[in-house]
TrEMBL record, chains A, B:
Residues 5-73 form the HTH gntR-type domain. InterPro entries: Bact_HTH_transcr_reg, Chorismate_lyase_/UTRA_dom_sf, Tscrpt_reg_HTH_GntR, UTRA, WH-like_DNA-bd_sf, WH_DNA-bd_sf. It comes from Weissella hellenica. GO terms for biological process: negative regulation of DNA-templated transcription. It comes from the Bacteria. This is GntR family transcriptional regulator.
């Protein structure tokens, strides 16, 4: 995939490797632009663009008089403050998203799903399991349950290419509110294998109910984000 | 501490033990009120109060026609959607909070602290480390950095009895905004020992900057919440 990436993205990924392998340690300054330009044999504007990307992704922070330092070794996800499609969010970060669809079937709602989506015993839902990548690295494994009454032909869509949220939008289903509950999970064999982590590695474990304008629940999802790669930002005002 | 607790709290804790040991499994119904009253040899109003507490803490959920089921095996923390003192939050949940102060000293701000609190190289901060309990079980280990310029006599306070946020309030420092970043950490020896978990157990790792009305940062805190006991609720509107 690398050849389709612009030069500044390639350099950003190289700097990121140096952040993640500890060459540029957490909370310490990275080298000056001119030294980075020399190290990576590119122009200063390219370095500046690469740094800008890493600032917007939350890895680096910058203050005019002090310089640029390592703020986080992880990718900051907006999942905790907005309802946005994975591909849109990755696109804004400048990384290349990829989605594998592991399962898309119609099932009868279990008690847990009935309760989350306010369904009756006989109601059916689509169960959609997707593994999602950023620059070829698995980031999140997510299973969504969607009542079949909203989108009866959901299983006709190709979610390796289409976004579930864009599909909602195309059917005039406007998402207005999401209620997420966050726990930590230790990866079992399946999750470890799919997310390419070790058995028992810690995983962010989100349960989310997403609602339409009229507060009817339209999606219940269970997402497992790799603990080693992701961080979440939460803003509180009162 | 138990003898100071009301009867419904004691029963709530017994039901909670049954939730956490799997007697009442996640997402399954718990027994009817009348059967619980019989099991615990208390009146039905006491059972009803106990269930109400566990619903408000997020462990149980209820629907009129269906019954009451286990929603979560963990204590839901409001930390992700409000700025509130730990003791106030625990008080609302009906559990008995306790705080141990492990450290309270004046130090020179490191680069990380300077950056978070917008301080200069020579500025000093108070470093306050507290271990906080709910019903005698350690829940969170938190270190707060507070610029000495705001509260020069902070080290004269007894934070086993006083709340830091109430102290801010008493000095007319109104907290308006908090920016939290969430990661997962594996417990090292110290954290494992203090939080009474095993080495490498997963921990919620929050970095928070709290701001005054005028967006001046007044506290930088690093909190480690036990991964096995806590969950966090996040509401998103757009």
């Amino acid at each position: 995939m690398t050849k389709s990436q612009p030069k500044y993205r390639i350099i950003a990924n190289k700097i990121l490797e140096n952040i993640q392998d500890g060459t540029y340690p957490l909370h310490e300054f990275i080298p000056k632009e001119i030294d980075l330009a020399d190290k990576f044999q590119v122009s200063r504007p390219t370095i500046r663009q690469a740094i800008q990307i890493l600032v917007s992704e939350g890895y680096l922070a910058r203050r005019k008089k002090s310089g640029t330092w390592v703020q986080s070794t992880k990718m900051t996800q907006g999942f905790t403050h907005m309802i946005k499609s994975y591909s849109d969010e990755m696109g804004e970060k400048g990384v290349i998203p990829k989605t594998e669809v592991l399962n898309l079937t119609k099932i009868t709602a279990t008690l847990e799903i009935q309760s989350a989506l306010k369904l009756s015993v006989d109601d059916t839902v689509f169960a959609l399991t997707r593994l999602r990548f950023a620059d070829e690295i698995p980031v999140v494994l997510v299973t969504s349950y969607i009542p079949t009454k909203y989108l009866p032909d959901l299983d006709q869509h190709d979610f390796t290419k289409e976004s579930l949220y864009h599909t909602f939008k195309d059917h005039n289903l406007a998402l207005r509110h999401a209620s997420r509950e966050l726990e930590i999970l230790k990866a079992d064999e399946t999750t470890a294998a799919l997310l390419q982590v070790s058995l028992n590695d810690p995983i962010f474990y989100f349960h989310t109910i997403t609602y339409l304008d009229n507060y009817a629940p339209v999606e219940y999802s269970i997402a497992k984000y790799r603990g080693d790669l992701n961080s979440f930002k939460i803003e509180i005002n009162q």
